[in-house]
Design a protein that fits this description.
This protein is α+β, with helices and mostly antiparallel strands. Helix content is 16%, strand content 36%. It has four helices and 17 strands. A four-stranded antiparallel sheet has the order 3-11-10-4. Helix 2 packs across helix 4. The longest helix is centred in the first third of the chain and has 17 residues. The radius of gyration is 26 Å and the shape is elongated. 27% of the residues are buried.
Length: 307
């Protein structure tokens, strides 16, 4: 641990050992049976002993003994700058520890998002347009973390959906289509993604990128709670609408360039249910409203290009 952040971490793993005495007895019994009946015998299931990892009394790690929540999303087809920003964002969040009673802020943890912190220009939603800014693609990071938080059964204190539907976030980590409603957008100074550690021990965020997948794992100690996400369910859908054409002298006359892809609007809802060990149930509804997003084209009015 350096400056309150974990720099090296090996997730706990259960130990497995062969029970040798029982194994020898099984082999002997099997061979003895085959001496009297050559057709008998067969596969022997080796008996093993599973030993769960023990928590060590290391300052800052006390109580972190197991995986309590995990989520994976895919960014298949993302451009190079977006992939680079995703990897960079995961690096800043990995190793962060949230103490009992503490609220975690994604934006505060990420800090400054510009070229000085390793980010590249990529598309972000701003107003009614998508434009390149440093850190474009970080919402893949916040969306994955949002789902890991819910899988851990932790209270989400702040979350907002995107202005329009983004195809990257309508699939789960296994490549199954789930539709809109489980995304979480971030943009400084707001909106933010926040959650609270209401467990009795610290929670460690551990993230990584493998292939076209980003994963967040949350480690701590389970108090026996369970969680469930019902949905998302698409309540309504609005057509994207007619394409928008804008004239520009930055393109030669006769040239048309598409700058926005059409996305239907609509409303989706997901219900987040936490069941505590004492039987108390906490329910939170995430209702997401998406604007319809028509295709947009630039039509050139400038000087015609010479052959």
């Amino acid at each position: 641990v350096q400056d309150g952040k974990v720099t090296e971490f090996l997730p706990p793993r259960a130990g497995v050992s062969l029970e040798q005495t029982r194994t020898i007895r099984l082999i002997q019994d099997n061979l003895t049976q085959r001496m009297s009946d050559p057709a008998s015998g067969g596969v022997i299931e080796l008996p093993v002993k599973i030993t769960k990892p023990l928590s060590e009394n290391i300052q800052g790690f006390q109580g972190i003994t197991e995986l309590i929540g995990k989520a994976t999303t895919r960014f298949t087809g993302s451009p190079a700058n977006r992939i680079s920003n995703i990897k960079n964002g995961v690096k800043f969040l990995t190793g962060i520890m949230i103490q009992p009673g503490e609220e975690f802020s994604t934006l505060q943890t990420l800090g400054t998002v510009d070229n000085t912190t390793g980010y590249l220009p990529e598309l972000v939603i701003k107003g009614n347009r998508t434009i390149p800014e440093f850190g474009g693609g970080l919402c893949q990071v916040s969306t994955t973390l949002f789902r890991a938080i819910m899988n851990a059964g932790l209270p989400v204190t702040q979350r907002r959906n995107h202005a329009f539907r983004v195809s990257y976030y309508e699939w789960d980590g296994d490549g199954k289509f789930i539709g809109p409603g489980l995304d979480a957008t971030i943009y400084s100074p707001e909106p933010d993604l926040r959650f609270k550690n209401d467990t009795a021990t610290a929670i460690l965020i551990y993230g990584y990128v493998k292939g076209d997948q980003v994963t967040f794992e949350l480690y701590g100690t389970s108090d026996g709670r369970t969680s469930e996400v019902k949905g998302p369910v698409l309540l309504s859908e609005t057509p994207a609408g007619d394409p928008i054409y804008e004239s520009t002298d930055l393109l030669p006359k006769g040239v048309t360039k598409q700058v926005e892809t059409a996305h239907p609007g609509g409303v989706a809802v997901a219900t987040y249910i936490i069941t505590h060990p004492d039987g108390n149930v906490t329910t939170k509804e995430f209702k997401s409203s998406y604007r319809r997003w028509p295709a947009r084209y630039l039509v050139g009015t400038g000087e015609e290009t010479q052959p």
